[in-house]
Each structure stands twice: as structure tokens, then as C-alpha cells.
């Protein structure tokens, strides 16, 4: 979200304070009605639900310069509809909900930037949902890695280094596949030298493979 930055948020809400969360900590619970809206300074969170069998289903990933929980903040939902939990140590700004809602009523420039960001977030969600429709495990995992590469990675030679700690369990929760299936597929990708491990579970994905997985191919398969 390039339009809304840490500097612009601090200028708009000068009295906001920071909060630090450790890895694995829940920031918002299902059913919460928070009095703050959060702007991510550093770190990543997962927006996830838990099914009737107790399995996590990751719906979205939230990184730096993102705001949550937006649906609740805009009054679209009456409460937070899933969980927001940290994937790593994370720092956020906590903006009072009343101040945020007043700003979107009176500051047209801020509202326009939020709308642009919201449309971008929708495109991310469409990509994720479309990738889940792939019928083969390899396709699902490749498109999940593509999604993360596009939004949360940085170049490292001929590789893209993912900025999110990636484990086989994370990919299982993100794709809806069994962990064992993910492990077997990731082993195949490593054998083919399409992925390689990096420090801190920061997986690297070969960039030429990322480029092969196009949006058009994804939505028309």
C-alpha cells in the first residue's frame, strides 16, 4: 500500500502509540469489537479462521503498510470475523477507532487512498481464491509461492527471497492441503532447484519460475 505510509499515518494521527507483539500472538480474536485500528510498521500477520476440525485456514497475509481490521472499521461487519495472528515479531501503530472513522468522514484524500488500497487488497484475495481452485497439489503450492513472491519478497540474485517465514505447516494452512502433501511437493521442488532454503525459514523461489506463472494463466486454467 504505497499511498498510505508510516509518515502519513503519524501526520494524520499524531498521538498514536506503537505496540509490539511476539511471534504467534493473536492481535484480534474472532468476535472482537476493537477500539483501535492497526497500521503495520514491521512484521507480518495472518488473517485466519479455524474449521470445525480445529484446522487453521489462512485467508490473507498482512504486511508492512497495511491496515486492519478494515471491514469492521468501515462498519461492513459488526465484529471481527476471523483471527489476526503474528507470523513473526510485529510492530503496529494503534489508531483510536473514533479518530479513524472521523478521518474517513472529513479527509477526502485519505479516503481516496484507502479506497485504492482496498481495491488492491481485493485483487490479492481474488488471486488467492483462484489458486485454491487448482486441482493438483503442485499447482496450488506454486501459485501460493507466486502470491507471496509478488507481494512479500525481495530480489536476491536469480532468486526471490520471501519476507515471510515459510514452513510446511504454513503452506498447508494457506493452500488447504495436508502437511504431508506439502512436504512431499516441496521436496520435489527443491530437487528440481526451483526453491531453496534461507535463514529463518525465509524460502527463496527461482525468479524465472515466478515469471512463468501469470495472472491470465491462473484465472483461465
Short description:
By secondary structure, the protein is α+β, with helices and mostly antiparallel strands. It has helices at 6-12, 70-73, 97-106, 108-132, 137-151, 168-175, 179-191, 207-212, 215-220, and strands at residues 17-21, 26-28, 36-42, 45-50, 56-62, 67-68, 83-86, 90-96, 153-156, 159-162, 195-196, 204-206.
Name the CATH superfamily classification of the largest domain: Jelly Rolls
User: Main β-sheet, in a few words?
Assistant: 4 strands, antiparallel
How would you write the strand order of the largest sheet?
1-8-3-6
Instruction: Report the count of strand segments.
Output: 12
Tell me, briefly, the overall form.
Answer: globular
SSE string, helix = H, strand = E?
HEEEEEEHEEHHHEEHHEEHH
Account of the protein in words:
This protein is of the alpha+beta class and 221 residues long. It folds into two domains: 6-129, Jelly Rolls (Sandwich); 133-220, Winged helix-like DNA-binding domain superfamily/Winged helix DNA-binding domain (Arc Repressor Mutant, subunit A, Orthogonal Bundle). The chain is 43% helix and 24% strand. It contains nine helices and twelve strands. The protein has a four-stranded antiparallel β-sheet with strand order 1-8-3-6. α4 (108-132) packs antiparallel against α5 and α6 crosses α7 (179-191).
Question: How are the elements arranged and paired?
Answer:
Elements: H1 6-12, E1 17-21, E2 26-28, E3 36-42, E4 45-50, E5 56-62, E6 67-68, H2 70-73, E7 83-86, E8 90-96, H3 97-106, H4 108-132, H5 137-151, E9 153-156, E10 159-162, H6 168-175, H7 179-191, E11 195-196, E12 204-206, H8 207-212, H9 215-220
Antiparallel strand pairs: 1-8, 2-7, 3-6, 3-8, 4-5, 4-7, 9-10, 10-12, 11-12
Amino acid at each position: 500500500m504505497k499511498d498510505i505510509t508510516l509518515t502519513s499515518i503519524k501526520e494524520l494521527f499524531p498521538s498514536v502509540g506503537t505496540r509490539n507483539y511476539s511471534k504467534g500472538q493473536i492481535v484480534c480474536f474472532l468476535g472482537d469489537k476493537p477500539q483501535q485500528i492497526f497500521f503495520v510498521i514491521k512484521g507480518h500477520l495472518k488473517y485466519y479462521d479455524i474449521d470445525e476440525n480445529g484446522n487453521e485456514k489462512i485467508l490473507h497475509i498482512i504486511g508492512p503498510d497495511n491496515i486492519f481490521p478494515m471491514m469492521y472499521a468501515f462498519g461492513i461487519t459488526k465484529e471481527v470475523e476471523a483471527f489476526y495472528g503474528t507470523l513473526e515479531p510485529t510492530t503496529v501503530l494503534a489508531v483510536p477507532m473514533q479518530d479513524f472513522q472521523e478521518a474517513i468522514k472529513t479527509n477526502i484524500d485519505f479516503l481516496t487512498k484507502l479506497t485504492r488500497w482496498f481495491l488492491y487488497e481485493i485483487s490479492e484475495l481474488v488471486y488467492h481464491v483462484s489458486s485454491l481452485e487448482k486441482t493438483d497439489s503442485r499447482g496450488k503450492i506454486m501459485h501460493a509461492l507466486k502470491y507471496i513472491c509478488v507481494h512479500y519478497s525481495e530480489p536476491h540474485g536469480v532468486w526471490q527471497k520471501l519476507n515471510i517465514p515459510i514452513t510446511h505447516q504454513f503452506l498447508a494452512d494457506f493452500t488447504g492441503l495436508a502437511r504431508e502433501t506439502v512436504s512431499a511437493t516441496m521436496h520435489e521442488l527443491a530437487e528440481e532447484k526451483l526453491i531453496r532454503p534461507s535463514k529463518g525459514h525465509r524460502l527463496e523461489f527461482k525468479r524465472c519460475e515466478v515469471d512463468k506463472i501469470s495472472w491470465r494463466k491462473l484465472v483461465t486454467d
